[in-house]
Structure to design on (472 residues):
């Protein structure tokens, strides 16, 4: 690496500007980024501004212009060849799936374009998808420019500030990009799981009904169906419901282990643990006896079990106000039993924490039960309150949840109770755990509203929490 830097510094500055600009533009314009992401080039440009080979201002302007030009060409290519793709091999996808993809991109809109700029491979493909989906170029250009300015500016400035540590920073940033892709894939999996749960609010019965279509199960049912019926009658509906809920909780526990396993891989390969000592030293240098005592008091009061009890009380009050509910797993954990997923999460965190064994082998997930449960509890409280409130109250609830989550996480870091990597893993686990149920509830409400509109087209759309739900 040192020899390469020495050779590059000997080149004329104009050539360096030109080659770097071509690489940054080609990352999206000619899909070059699928092979070599552009962060390394921008970090190198930042390093060359540090040692005086290039000037910082012109370098920033040149790289921003190149990235915008490359994205614009990719957008035009998607606009021009997108219909041909749909009419060719894309016709196998079907118009319904294309329509859902267009609706999803329209719903995310510019926010998706902005976020894609920070993720390798995604920033190469998203401009083409936006052009093919018919997104207005003015809308694309504004959000894309915001993403380009922040991404290019941040990467070049990081290379400039890193100075002689450029090689280390480049390696860590490359690992962080891979972890970001892994987390995005995990988030997609969480959302899909939530949507499936929303469409199948009684997941055990849904899985059993699908299993019933398998030949061995059909044979057993045909042969011993009457015996199964008599056993079910003997157990009774109450015990059947309890067994069904218990099996559903086992499924949730398995989902929690899967999410924790994903975070284990992400944290182990992110390089975030390299910052643990620096973050701990920064907080230790600012710790005073009086502030530490006050912080310890707050942390002692706002603990996982306290928040679980608070969630149970809030859920009970809201369930009493909206009394009817369905006898399925999603209704239970989304109303009076909202505290139950938190208990499952606590068990998952204990199993996969520092004293447990991470799924898939390797080191255990460096997270704490307290941070995971606190994060999930704050998110659950905000979700419960915002479902039955107007938007100003909902915004206030989520703002308070975010402030509480950051405050408790920062307080535990300040006291030296947790590491930075462990806090990040625990908070992500708690948030992703809550996202599953938020997506599931929204999916079921949307499905129920669509059914109501299908039965009575003149009836206004359902309002989710305002809709009376008939008990089963």
């Amino acid at each position: 690496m040192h020899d390469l830097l020495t050779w590059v510094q000997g080149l004329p500055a104009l050539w360096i500007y030109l080659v770097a600009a071509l690489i940054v533009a080609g990352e999206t314009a000619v899909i070059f980024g699928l092979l070599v992401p552009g962060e390394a080039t921008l970090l190198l440009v930042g390093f060359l501004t540090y040692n005086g080979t290039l000037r910082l201002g012109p370098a920033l302007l040149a790289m921003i212009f190149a990235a915008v030009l490359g994205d614009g060409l990719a957008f035009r290519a998607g606009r021009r060849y997108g219909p041909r793709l749909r009419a060719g091999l894309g016709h196998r996808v079907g118009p319904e799936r294309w329509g859902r993809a267009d609706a999803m991109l329209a719903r995310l809109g510019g926010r998706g374009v902005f976020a894609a700029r920070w993720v390798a491979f995604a920033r190469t493909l998203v401009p083409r998808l936006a052009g093919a989906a018919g997104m207005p170029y003015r809308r694309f250009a504004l959000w894309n420019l915001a993403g380009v300015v922040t991404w290019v500016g941040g990467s070049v400035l990081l290379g400039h500030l890193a100075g002689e540590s450029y090689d280390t920073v480049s390696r860590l940033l490359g690992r962080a990009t891979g972890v970001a892709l892994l987390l995005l894939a995990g988030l997609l999996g969480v959302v899909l799981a939530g949507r499936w749960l929303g469409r199948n609010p009684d997941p055990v019965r849904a899985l059993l009904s699908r299993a019933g279509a398998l030949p061995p199960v059909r044979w057993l049912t045909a042969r011993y169906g009457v015996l199964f019926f008599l056993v079910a009658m003997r157990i009774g509906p109450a015990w059947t419901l309890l067994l069904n809920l218990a099996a559903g909780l086992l499924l949730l526990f398995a989902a929690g282990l899967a999410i924790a396993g994903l975070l284990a891989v992400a944290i182990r390969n992110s390089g975030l643990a390299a910052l643990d000592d620096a973050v701990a030293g920064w907080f230790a240098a600012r710790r005073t006896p009086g502030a530490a005592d006050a912080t310890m008091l707050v942390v002692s009061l706002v603990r996982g079990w306290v928040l679980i009890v608070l969630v149970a009380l809030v859920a009970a009050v809201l369930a009493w106000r909206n009394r009817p509910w369905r006898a399925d797993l999603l209704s239970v954990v989304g109303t009076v039993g909202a505290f139950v997923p938190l208990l499952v999460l606590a068990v998952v965190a204990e199993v996969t924490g520092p004293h447990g064994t991470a799924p898939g082998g390797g080191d255990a997930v460096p997270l704490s039960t307290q941070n995971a449960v606190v994060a999930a509890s704050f998110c659950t409280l905000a979700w419960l309150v915002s479902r039955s409130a107007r938007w100003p109250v909902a915004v206030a609830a989520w703002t308070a949840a975010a402030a509480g989550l950051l405050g408790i996480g920062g307080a535990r870091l300040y006291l030296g109770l947790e590491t930075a990597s462990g806090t990040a893993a625990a908070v992500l686990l708690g948030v992703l755990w809550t996202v599953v149920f938020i997506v599931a509830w929204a999916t079921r409400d949307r499905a129920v509203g669509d059914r109501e509109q299908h039965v009575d087209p003149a009836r206004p759309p359902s309002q989710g929490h305002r809709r009376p739900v008939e008990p089963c």
About this structure: The chain has 20 helices and no strands. Confidence is low (pLDDT under 50) at residues 355-365, 459-472. The chain has three domains: 2-185, 203-235, 236-466. Residues 236-466 form one domain.
